[in-house]
Amino acid sequence: MLAAAGGADAAPGGAPYELPSTLTPSKLQRFVSCPLAFRLSYLDRRPEPPTVDQLRGTLVHRALQVLYASGPAAGRRLERARTALEEAFEEPALRGELDQLGLDEAALARLGREAAALVEKYFALEDPTRVHPIGLELDLRARVDGIELRGIIDRLDRLEDGNMVVVDYKTGRAPRPEQSRARLGGVHFYAYLCEQLLGRRPSEVRLLYLRDQVVVVESPTDQSMRGLRQRATAVWTAITRACATGDFRPNPSPLCRSCAFRSSCPAAPATCVGAITR
After folding, report:
1. Beta-carbon contacts of residue 129 (< 8 Å; ≥ 6 apart)
2. What are phi and psi of 134, to 5 degrees?
3. What is the pLDDT of residues 46-72, one digit of tens each?
4. How many folded domains does the chain comprise?
5. CA 257 to CA 251: how far, in whole Å?
6. Which domain holds residue 238?
7. CA dihedral defined by 144, 150, 153, 159, rounded to 10 degrees?
8. Which of 57, 111, 148, 224 is the most exposed place for a label (fewest CB within 10 A)?
9. Domain stop point among 129, 163, 182
10. Contact predicate 140/24, CB 8 Å
11. DSSP labels, 246-267
C-alpha cells in the first residue's frame, strides 16, 4: 500500500503577498469563489473555527481510513467501523476541535448519532471486503508548468483488471444531477496527479455521498485532463497577479452566509449576503 500523508502574512502596506507554496483543489476553489476569503485563509492565515458539519465529516473520514488500514479485508465490518468512529472521537486533534465547538451533552450525542449513521450508510454503497486500496489519505504532489500541485486522496483503489479508481467520501448533500459534473473538479485534480506521478491515469473517479447514498462516477479523458491543467494554470496566474498587487476583492454570494470571515468583509450588507461591514 502506498504511504499516507501553505501562504504568508502580508508585507507592510498590504502588498505584495508571498505566493502559497502549493495549489490544491480547496485553494483553487476558494480563490474562484472569493479572492478575499482565499487571502484571509491561506495568506493571512486567519484561523477558521471548526463547524459541526466539518467535524462530522472529519470523524467519518477518519473512521473509514482506520477501517481500511487496520487489518485483513475480511475484518472490514460495520462493527469495526463503529469502533473506529468511537476511537476517532478520542484522538487528541479531533478532541481539541470538539472542545472548541463547546457542544453540550445533547449536541455531542447528536453529533455521535449522525456520524454513526453516515458510517452505516457507507456500507450500503460498497462492500469494503471486496475493495483493494493501494493508498489511503494519499498525499500527492507534482510540479506542472512551474506550479506545485498537491492533493490528498481519500482512497486510491486498484481494480481486478489493474486499473485505478480515485474515491472521495462526501458527507454533505448530494448535488442535483445538473450540478454533479461541477462537483467532480477535485477528483479530476487527483486523477491528474496520479497520472503525473504514477504514470497511469485512473480509469474512474468516484464521489460517494454517504448521506443520500448516491455515487457519482466519471471517467477522466484527455479533454478533462487538459481542461484541469488549463484551469489550474489560469487560476494560478490570477493568484500570482493578486499577490503582486494585493488586490483580493470579495465576491458576494450565498456562500457568505457560512463564511468564517464575514465580519472582516468590506462588502456592503446589501450586496454581500450575510456579511457584516467592517
Report:
1. 73, 74, 76, 77
2. -115, 0
3. 998 889 999 999 999 999 999 999 989
4. 2
5. 12
6. 1-46+132-247
7. 20
8. 148
9. 129
10. no
11. T------SGGGGG-TTGGG--S
